[in-house]
Amino acid sequence: MAERSEQELQRIASLQALRDLGIDPYPAAEYRVTHSASGALADFDRLSSSREKVRIAGRIRSRRIMGSASFISVQDESGQLQVYVRRDEVCPGEDKTLYNVVFKKLLDLGDIVGAEGYLFTTQTGEKSLHAESLTVLAKSIRPLPVVKEKDGKTFDAFTDAELRYRQRYLDLALNAETRQTFRKRQQIIDTIRAFYNEHGYLEVETPILQSLPGGASARPFITHHNALDIPLYLRIADELYLKRLIVGGYDGVYEFAKDFRNEGMDRTHNPEFSMVEIYVAYKDYFWMMDFTERMLERTALAVHGTTEFTSGGHTISFKRPFRRLTIRDAIKEYAGVDIKGLGLEELREACRARGVEIDATMGEGKLIDELFGATCEEHLVQPTFLIDYPIELSPLCKRHRDDSELTERFELFVNGHELCNAYSELNDPQDQYERFREQMELAAKGDEEAMRIDHDYIRAMEYGMPPCSGMGIGIDRLVMLLLDKPSIQDVLLFPQMRPEPRVARDDDEAFKAIGVPSEWIVALRALGFNTVVSLRSAKVNKLLNDLRSYAKKNKQTLPALTVEALQAWGVQE
Known about the structure:
An 8-stranded mixed β-sheet has the order 8-12-13-20-19-18-17-16, with helices on both faces. It is α+β, with helices and mostly antiparallel strands and 573 residues long. It has 21 helices and 20 strands.
């Protein structure tokens, strides 16, 4: 563990002092809270007039110590409530230790306490809790970053993105907006689930560990099952298992799921992400477009109270109906080329002419997809269904009823990004088998995302799968869109991060070996010098001044130091 800071050492000493006084700083007993901070304020008039007992619990976020009476602000999940603490109220007897010692000297910002009393209004007009008892519930050792609040405004906010994502517990403790983000995320999920349940569709769970990665074109994570001695894959999609359930006789099934793809990370991609997929028998992709519109319209209303909201600097409307555009017409409109009838070389030339990066492994469908992505996506700000994709891009999708080279597929684009993907599902087992074989040919050419043949899925289809439509929507991206968050890391409680770099640290003997007196080692570490190399890179005069200032500030009597002594340690001019 890293060297403790001066504040941490002081808090550890306070922790021991509490124990010496017979106070358990981490009590096991239930502390029965009667009201949240916001709930008490919302019902203030009734509670204050009746002097009904109110008991809250939370973290001390601020305090003003004023002799025999003080104020603290206690924060729970809902917000903050000022608590008035008067010595003779919380210590009605002769022993005033709880106030004079525990409250004034041993409690710190960030500690978790319980307070019980009645509500009143202070002379300055602030609604507060007049504490009649105070209970220590958890002593904090690490100090919280200081965030100042005044008149509803926040100063010195905890905004460092790296720290917020890596230490989400601090982000949640300090930023009410972050707590609200994840409340609204759950509201979005609840709204979708309720919509599906109203239609009588069954929520199910399918395997995360799979013997074959299927249902999408993506690179999987691979693990090994020791007992069976076989490789297994973290699922990349839920599709093939859900469609097996349609074969089994369910009219509609859906799953909220964690999927995993061993691919790049950026502001819209995390290797572990949340999806909801739904499959409904006897429907097609036209029905699914109508169904998706209604679901998204309801979700926007649930979150915002209106179908219009701002995201990425644009006003987005989820009011039905959404625009529908074939991929051919989109490329014609935004790239200025009609792909109808173009062969492989002509498509390659169209891509090169527009600066689209391609490689020799790409077939016609992949080239069309790359051309669309590079020239069209950014223009699709308002919700737009892109429909009728090339068959090569959709190995699990039914051929188009009017054009055998296309499929009955749509992707919904909003604000320049794909939000969901849906098909009229392929239910012809022979056609499906041939599509799988074509995918294997692409894999042989080096396409690492090509699908493999799932023989059990083919077997299930051969028993007869009713016509159906399926749709998958990325929950993380939907939350980003609806809440106007620029990064997927803003809507994941614990996004994937690179491991924290380990701080190099020499032991005390290494410092003593170069002549550093043991009394000064603690001071050097407090100043951030944890290795001999870092010490020797310091500037001698600045280091001397910093060490003397440390000793003076901490009222420590330490051996005298000179420039020559520091130079003897190897510190440079």
